[in-house]
TrEMBL record:
CDD domains: GT1_Gtf-like
Annotated SUPFAM superfamilies: UDP-Glycosyltransferase/glycogen phosphorylase (SSF53756)
Keyword match Cell membrane: no
Annotated family: Belongs to the UDP-glycosyltransferase family.
GO BP annotations, alphabetical order: flavonol biosynthetic process
Name recorded for this polypeptide: Uncharacterized protein
GO molecular function: UDP-glucosyltransferase activity
Species for this entry: Hibiscus trionum
Keyword 4Fe-4S found: no
Keywords: Glycosyltransferase, Transferase
Length: 467
């Protein structure tokens, strides 16, 4: 069963009735792996009757467009210019253009929107239009300033966490292993009114319970995933929808489980040597494949100016056997297709969830951040993935990688069986009555219960008016 066969529905639920008219402010972190799942969650909240304002900067407004077209007038953007920062290129407002080392600078720049947001909230509370927001739902990486913002407003902050639970469990257990920026973000998040994960209890419920009992001070830990996409998005930037039908037609001519999909998300860009190793493995293996090649970053790590370089002549030599797609790729549709049997991936959480819901075998090449914990969970604990390589700069052995590509499309490996079992559990979680469906209900009820107290700003205004 595919994820499009099962959708959350707020219609007729008690949470939808209680949520009617409640207004919340959503503050995303501008990276595809963060903003897209938060928009998916926002979609579910809108379906259940909430009204939403989403903060964005101009170059990130495109990620809000599906919600704006589906839910207007119950969702509105709140646009601010991206604040300048001495360590960021002037035109950059999104992490996919930068290595991960620039992440703290993005957060620092967005923190300059603290006062403009305070002023906007005060305007909302002047009684001009709809009711002011009763809560802030924000990305955990922004917690160093969004938790304080909500506190100054006298309203709750709930942290959305786009990382998987296993990674957060590991980081909280050993905070000394984290860089200072991440330690600060997680420490600040403990003052929020709860965590919301894009995960499900059948996969990570034990670790959710541990985090709730030991770390979160004031709220609950909820798992509401795998969140269905607002629409069938792809990977990479740009519209690209016209290419989708061509790709699907190519897959239609392929045998079931015979195609390998290769993609490393919106943040990872392969070096010239890594590109050559993957290309050589594909040629040696002879497997049918689709390879999503990311555009080079505007600011490369280590001065690497030969990113994403496809070896000369490769596309001609594999013509008929494979497709090399540059820019936008209809990733969800590809993974769902019956012809795709395995997925060579960095094991980012969004990509891993899409593969889980599609029942596709994961060939894991973890590179940074939470990729290693995700690989440990899916390969070692669950047995639904196979390790092929690790490391951001590691160059895999082409002959060994070629063998693994062939095995992933020809053998009935136990990991493939486990992947199918995990798919069933994931789909059941988001069905009505499933664990994630119930947690989403609880989140909506929690948000609907906010807004009855007197905020700090309202109290300050009363004091000023009496002076």
């Amino acid at each position: 069963m595919k994820i499009n066969d099962v959708k959350y529905s707020g219609k007729g639920s008690t949470s939808a009735a209680s949520a009617a008219g409640k207004h919340i402010c959503v503050i995303p972190f501008p990276a595809c792996g963060h903003i897209l799942p938060l928009m998916d969650l926002t979609h579910q909240l809108l379906l259940r009757g909430l009204t939403v304002t989403i903060m964005a900067t101009p170059k990130n407004l495109c990620y809000l467009n599906p919600l704006l077209s589906l839910h207007s007038p119950n969702v509105e953007p709140l646009l601010f210019p991206f604040p300048p920062h001495p360590s960021l290129p002037r035109e950059v407002e999104q992490m996919q253009d930068l290595p991960i080392s620039f992440l703290p600078h993005i957060v620092d720049a967005l923190g300059k929107l603290y006062n403009p947001l305070l002023q906007w909230f005060q305007t909302q509370r002047s009684g001009n239009s709809k009711s002011p927001p009763v809560a802030v739902l924000s990305d955990i990486l922004l917690a160093p300033w969004t938790v304080n913002l909500a506190s100054d407003l006298g309203i709750p902050n709930i942290c959305f966490i786009p990382f998987n639970v296993a990674a957060v469990h590991s980081w909280l257990g050993k905070p000394s292993f984290l860089l200072p920026f991440y330690r600060e973000a997680f420490k600040a998040s403990m003052e929020s009114q709860g965590f919301v994960f894009n995960s499900f209890k059948e996969l990570e419920g034990g670790k959710m319970g541990f985090i709730e009992q030991k770390f979160v001070k004031h709220g609950r830990v909820l798992g509401v995933g795998p969140l269905p996409a607002v629409n069938e998005r792809g990977a990479g930037a740009g519209a690209g929808a016209d290419s989708s039908s061509e790709v699907i037609s190519w897959l239609d001519d392929s045998v079931d489980d015979s195609v390998v999909f290769i993609g490393f998300g919106t943040q990872i860009t392969l070096t010239k040597h890594q590109m050559k190793a993957v290309a050589t493995a594909l040629e040696q293996s002879g497997v049918r494949f689709i390879w999503a090649v990311k555009e080079p970053m505007k600011r490369a790590e280590d001065g690497d100016d030969e990113q994403s370089m496809i070896p000369p002549g490769f596309e001609d030599r594999v013509r008929g056997k494979g497709l090399v797609l540059k820019g936008w790729v209809p990733q969800v549709a590809i993974l769902k297709h019956r012809a795709v049997g395995s997925y060579l991936t960095h094991c980012g959480w969004n990509s891993a969830l899409e593969a889980i819901v599609a029942g596709v075998l994961l060939l894991a090449w973890p590179m940074q951040a939470d990729h290693f914990q995700i690989t440990r969970l899916l390969a070692d604990e669950v047995g639904a993935a196979i390790r092929v390589c690790k490391g951001l700069r590691t160059v895999p052995d082409s002959t060994e990688l070629a063998r693994m590509l062939v095995d992933s499309t020809t053998s009935r490996q136990p990991q493939r069986v486990r992947a199918m079992e995990l798919q069933k559990a994931a789909v059941a979680a988001i069905k009505e009555g499933g664990s994630s469906y119930q947690d989403l209900d609880e989140l909506v009820e929690q948000l609907s219960g906010f807004g009855n107290g007197c905020s700090k700003i309202e109290t300050m205004n009363v004091i000023r008016s009496s002076m």
